[in-house]
Amino acid sequence: MKLSNKILTALALTASVSFVHAGAVAVVGASSPIGAASGSDVVKVFLGKKKDLGGVTAIPVDQDEGTPGRGAFYSTIVKKSEAQLKSYWSRLIFTGKGQAPQVVGGDADVKGMVSTNPNLIGYIDEGAVDGTVKVVFKP
Amino acid sequence: MAIKHLTYACIPLIAASMSSQAATVDQLNRQVQKLSQRIAAQDQRFRVNGFATFGMSISDEAMPYNDVNDEVNFNRFSKAGVQMTFNMDSQNSVVMQLVSRGDNNWETNAEWAYFKHEFGSGLTGKIGRIRLPAYQLSEFLDVGYSTPYAQVPAETYDSLNPFANMEGVDLSYSMDVGDNTATFQAVYGRAKDDEFDLTDILGLSGVFQADTWSARLGYAVASVNVASETLQGAIGLYGGSTEGIDGAFTSLGFTYDPGDLYFTTEYTQLEADGEIVDADALYATIGYRFGRLMPTLTYAMAESQDDDERDISQITAANTGAIALATGVANQVAGGTDQATAISNVAAVTAGVEIADVTAAVAGAPLIVGGVSALQAASNRNTTRIGLGLRYDMSPGVAVKVQYDLIEVDDASGLFDDTAWATNDATGAGSSNPDKTNILTISIDTVF
């Protein structure tokens, strides 16, 4: 009985963990005019190579370094390590060609930001999606 | 019992106060959001970014190569810089970059200071003090973190002073080509360092940036004026021009960076009329990322193409004559004649030459030979470099690099100290000039 309880708990934990780390999705505010976007366009917006999505100005907001959302987004969608990313931005920043996206915090902060500004685009864990945001890209 | 009743009675009260609290929290949340947006906007208006490299270098050779010899040097490649960007609005900004260099006694210079305007549709204009965009790495050469090197291949990057900044204008146009980006840049202006004053610089470049690779072609022409008096004197020995010389520079670069593998190469060609060096240079680096570790292998070479133009046979007839007279005197002195008699003997057998002329030639000949040696040492190069590097990304924004370079020169000073080299040459001790040096460089590169 005790053992099966433990197993159940372990299973539940595993399930919840895999649910929490379902992966990063790109989101905009629920009322944003930005519609569904391709993965490559989302990547371009976050690398400063593209400034709009479907004609609507798109300003990327980043999560803090070290957040699981940021790790998932850059490793699976942008496919760059943190060091490669830093190196990439340092080349643009110090040639005056661009600035890395604003860093705003974690999933909750990104939701807070994008839901108040229709031009912002962020990424959050899929499990954190709620009514305040809409998903524009899911890998 | 009474307490229980009281408790029940309180519930609606608490509920009411909770909902009013919720409203307050909501309001506060909105205020915080507004505030954070304002802070973000302010942050976008004024940005400060920094970079720094701190390192040491040492070689196994007493004669300095690229300013590194067998005494440990903490300054050669060390530097720190800050870049400030003031965005007036979405179209106009001012950028200032202040850099302190170890090999310049850590003096701080405004390396860049320009006004930038975005015309829209990918067209950008700059005016002010900007980096001369000669090389593939020119614009981020100071930002060691953005390159795999502890020291960049100097055989290529020394052809033009890579840290030269120009005052002028820059027009850039960037366009999407499918998923790729093409950027065209045109600059016009003037650049000056201790040796040269380049006027009417016209530079053009095109960069094609694909997802995993980029290619760059750069071409620049300028009117070259020799600013250094020593160099003016040396060129004068050949009767050469020191002003308004036509110079041209070409750079062809390619980088392949799909993820773990890294490859980059650049070929450059420098051409200038007359005695000023024409040189070809090339480097190629291959690396592989094993997580945070990236070992690299670099091959570099540089070869001057016009050594014959600086050969001693090319000096003016008057200088050739002076050396002939001095040689005649030296031969007689070697045969046991005293110098005064030797001088008058040489004057007596040479038509149209007085004793005073021979005396002047004896005094002047070493200077002529010295000047020729100096120009050759400063210009001639025939160098190869094999570099082994290791980059360790300690944490995002901090990289530690170790680099070991094996450099060989063949009968030309390359980047060995040209004064020391020329002194050996001019005093007949040319055979004691080194033909190789091994350099160890360790650095910490950061961006912040």
Summarize the SSE layout with pairings.
The complex is a heterodimer of chains A (139) and B (448).
Chain A: H1 2-20, E1 24-29, H2 39-46, E2 52-53, E3 56-57, E4 59-62, H3 68-78, H4 82-93, E5 102-103, H5 107-116, E6 120-125, E7 133-137
Parallel strand pairs in A: 4-5, 4-6
Antiparallel strand pairs in A: 1-6, 1-7, 2-3
Chain B: H1 2-45, E1 46-59, E2 79-87, E3 92-101, E4 108-120, E5 123-131, H2 154-157, E6 165-177, E7 180-192, E8 196-209, E9 213-226, H3 229-236, E10 245-256, E11 261-272, E12 279-288, E13 293-304, H4 317-334, H5 339-349, H6 355-379, E14 382-395, E15 398-409, H7 418-426, E16 436-447
Antiparallel strand pairs in B: 1-2, 1-16, 2-3, 3-4, 4-5, 5-6, 6-7, 7-8, 8-9, 9-10, 10-11, 11-12, 12-13, 13-14, 14-15, 15-16
Helix pairs in contact in B: 3-6, 4-5, 4-6, 5-6, 6-7
Commentary on this structure:
The complex is a heterodimer of chains A (139) and B (448). With 139 residues, chain A is an alpha/beta fold. Chain A contains five helices and seven strands, in the order αβαβββααβαββ. In chain A, the strands form two sheets. In chain A, strands 5-4-6-1-7 form a five-stranded mixed beta sheet. In chain A, strands 2-3 form a two-stranded antiparallel ribbon. In chain A, strand 2 and strand 3 (56-57) form a beta hairpin. Chain A is globular. Mean pLDDT of chain A is 83; it is low at 13-20. Chain B has helices spanning 2-45, 154-157, 229-236, 317-334, 339-349, 355-379, 418-426; strands spanning 46-59, 79-87, 92-101, 108-120, 123-131, 165-177, 180-192, 196-209, 213-226, 245-256, 261-272, 279-288, 293-304, 382-395, 398-409, 436-447. Chains A and B meet through helix 4 and helix 5 of A and helix 1, strand 1, strand 3 and strand 4 of B.
